[in-house]
Amino acid sequence: MDVDLQLAVERLLARYVHAIDDGRLEAWPDFFSESCVYKITTAENLREGLEAGIIFANSRDMLRDRVSALREANIYERQSYRHILGQPCILSDDGAEVRSETSFLVMRTVQDGDSVIYATGRYLDIYAISGDIAKLNERIVVCDSSRINTLLAIPL
Amino acid sequence: MDVDLQLAVERLLARYVHAIDDGRLEAWPDFFSESCVYKITTAENLREGLEAGIIFANSRDMLRDRVSALREANIYERQSYRHILGQPCILSDDGAEVRSETSFLVMRTVQDGDSVIYATGRYLDIYAISGDIAKLNERIVVCDSSRINTLLAIPL
Amino acid sequence: MDVDLQLAVERLLARYVHAIDDGRLEAWPDFFSESCVYKITTAENLREGLEAGIIFANSRDMLRDRVSALREANIYERQSYRHILGQPCILSDDGAEVRSETSFLVMRTVQDGDSVIYATGRYLDIYAISGDIAKLNERIVVCDSSRINTLLAIPL
Prior knowledge:
Three copies of one chain form a homotrimer. By secondary structure, chain A is of the alpha+beta class.
C-alpha cells in the first residue's frame, strides 16, 4: 500500500474543503488540472444512467467563471458552510491516474442560528499525482438527495 | 508508531462504509473473519453492564443471513445512508490482534428530500491484520441513543 | 511530506475527542502543554478582529479548573456528545511548532432521543511535537454560529 499516495490525496481533500469553507473560492479552481471535468449530479440520475448533471464544467476556466458568478450572486451571503469528509477510498492506480471515492457531508450555518445538513454524498475522483502534489482531473459529485438546489451557493 | 497498521485499519473502515452506503450489502460480511462477533448495543446498556444487544451474531454466516433478511424486507427501499467516520484510535496491538475505537455518524436521506441524523456512536473493534489486510474479529457498535430502531434497515 | 508528523497530529486529535465523548474529561487537559492557550470564539468575532472569546484559558491548570466546574454543574447530565473531525490540514512546521487547521462537527444526543448538530467549526491549533507525541500549545476553537451557549457542557 502506497502511504505517500494516500496522504497526497488526503492532503488535497483537506485543503480543498478548507478553501471553500474559509470563503476562499478563488483558490478552488487551482485544485483542478487545466483540462478537467467537474460535475454535480444525484445518485438517482447516476443509477438511471442520466448523463445530465446539475452543474457541468470541462475546464479550469469554466470553474473560474463559476466562482465569478457565485461572487456576484452572493454579495450579502450570511451563511457559512462546513465540509466533513470521510477517509478517501483509493479504487485504482495505474501509474498515471488514481481513482478514489470519498463520502462527504456539508452543513450550513446561519450566522446567528442553527446548523443544518445541507448535502451528503460522495466524490468520484480521478487524480493526477506529481511528486506529493495531487490535482483533480475529474470530480463527479454525487448527491444522495435528488432535491438539490440548482442555485448552489458554494462548490461541493 | 506503525504507519502501515494505522492505514490498514483506515482502509478497511473506508471500504466497509462505502460497501454499505453503495448498497453492496453482500460484500459486508467479507470484512469479517469467519469466526467473528458483531453486536449492536447502546451506550446505556454498556454502562449498566447489560450484555444483551439489539443485534448479535457470532459468525460470518450469521451476517450473511442477516443480509438476506434485509434484502427480503427492503425491496422497495427509497432511502439512502451515508456513514462518516472519525479517525480510528488504535488502543492496543499485541501482534496478533489490534483494538481500536472509531466514532461514527450515519445520515439517512429520503430520495427526494432532506437528510437527517440516523445514528451516532462508536465502533469498538478487534482486528486481525495479515500483511496490509485487516479483518474484523469483533465489532461492537455502541449507539449513543437508546432509541434504536430494532428493524435497522442497514448494517452499522 | 512528513508522514510521521501528520499521523502524530491525527492521533492526538483522535484521542482528544474520544476522551471527551467517553466522558473522561479529567484526561482532557493532558493533551495540552503546561503553558498553553485555549480559546473558544466565533467566526464572526474572528472576522471582526474581536479578541474576546467565549471561553479563555492560558494554562493547563485553568483547564483543570474548568473540568472541575463542569463536573459540579453537570451532575445529572443525561446527554452525550460525539465529535467527528475532518482531516487536519498542516499549515506550517518550523521545526519547533506545527500549525494546523481542522474542521469539527459535534452532535448531542439525548439518552432516549434524537441526535442534533450541537456545533460546527474549525480548530486553529499550534502543536509541540516530541518524537511521535503531539501536545497542544494553543487551540483556538472557531465556531461557525455566533449563537454559542456560554454554559457549554463539554470542552470542544
